[in-house]
Amino acid sequence: MSAESVPQDSTRSRRGPPQSSGCRLGVLVLTLLLGFSAFAILISPPVVSAASDSNVVSYRVDGAVNYTDPGGEPFWSSIPVTDVPLVASIAPGGGHTPDVQIKSANDGYNVYVLFRWNDSQGASFESNDEVWQAPNGTIMPFDSADTATVTQLYFNATYYYQDRAALLWFLPQSLGRDQTPRMVLGSDGALSGGAAEIWHWQSNPTDDNPLDTGFPGGYTDSLGNPIYPADNLSFAEDDYTNMTGFFTVPGNFGAGAPNLVPEADPFLIHVGSLYDNASKTWTVEMVRSFTTSQTAPYCVQLTPGVSYYVAFATWNGRLGESSAYKSVSQWYTLTISNLTAAQAPAPEGGISLTVAAGVGIGMLLVGVMIGAVVRSSRKGEDK
User: Fold this and answer.
1) Assigned domain for 10 exists
2) What is the CATH number of the domain that holds 369?
3) How many C-beta neighbours within 10 Å does residue 51 have?
4) Which residues contact 143 (CB under 8 A, 6 or more apart)?
5) Residue 253 has pLDDT above 70, yes or no
6) Contact 174, 194 (CB under 8 A)
7) How far is the C-alpha of 166 from the C-alpha of 202, rounded, in Å?
8) Any domain includes 12
9) How far is the C-alpha of 269 from the C-alpha of 298, rounded, in Å?
């Protein structure tokens, strides 16, 4: 096994060194099929008291997003923060980030969600293949079935994984929510009730350096030519899961891994990402329009005055978090408000619902596998 080099620190780092992988399309398709057999989420009915109905509030603001300085826009200073506790999805491999600070704003047309969390190990842009160490010391390729017995991935000072963050929206048009969004082994990756959209940011390959072989993440036009987001912005992969399976929504990965709406723009969710070496802190700002057109059946459609059920996750790549191994939240509500922060009281912070300690975003595993494996395949083909 060859070790990847460690990214060099800078005062404010926004991207890492180019990465590459030798995966081919056949391996990709096989891995996707294995991924679909990994996890399901059981969704809990919303048992939320009046006091916690708006424990994250998206306040109305004026001003534009600055993707080169996420969180530095003047309007953020007036918006209260909600500190969201996180727990391990699988221990001891997950749970290395104890909490993430969340803020939200909107301009009447777009919603902004700001993540900020401590990562004292430093930013990671590595995208090594997930592996685990058998009791006899053998390094084994990881596949979804291994989560039944494997409690952590293999990592060391030179072999580790990329950092990630994700936001899950339970889709209000879906019905039949069951108990708790907890991990369920041996399923086909589908929800047991309802549907959800996932905004999944990855430090590699969704950074904004078009010279990086890991950028833009494997999306192509109908002729197979790589396509890039406007202004070379970072972006979040847009995923969807329901009672039949897990899918990537917009864009075209090619015939081997079709998306739900291949002709739609894969860069609907813009992201500004920044790691500050002085404070050892990641800041990730996700932005999307209230509504989408081509992808509307699979994406949350936002309306002022309405609350939505959301959950959050982060991955610390240097500490071996990737795939199913992460730090996850319980359910929160996010309310799209027409009020400014000066017009409304600050949110009270996260109040957990009737959920298990292992509550999380189980289907994100498949999103990770799709995001990483498909991109790895594309990079291998481009060489």
Assistant:
1) no
2) 2.60.40.1190
3) 9
4) 31, 34
5) yes
6) yes
7) 9
8) no
9) 14
Amino acid identity of 296? A
pTM of the model: 0.78
CA distance 189 to 88: 19
- What's the rounded Cα separation, in Å, for the pair 225 and 134? 40
Answer whether 195's CB lies under 8 Å from 174's CB: yes
Range of the domain at 347: 17-382
Residue 288 and residue 307 in contact, taking contact as beta carbons nearer than 8 Å: no
Per-residue pLDDT tens digits for 292-312 = 999 998 999 999 999 998 989
Asked if residue 269 lies in contact with residue 288, where contact means CB atoms within 8 angstroms, the answer is yes
DSSP assignments along 212-276, one per residue = STT-S-S-B-TTS-B---GGG-EEEEEEEE-SS-EEE-BS---TTS--SBTTS-TT-SEEEEEEE
CB of 193 closer than 8 Å to CB of 162: no
Domain count, the chain: 1
74 backbone dihedrals φ, ψ, rounded to 5°: -55, -35
Residue 263 in this model has a pLDDT that exceeds 50: yes
User: 277 lies in a domain?
Assistant: yes
For residue 328, being part of any structural domain is answered with yes
Q: Are 241 and 192 in contact (CB under 8 A)?
A: no
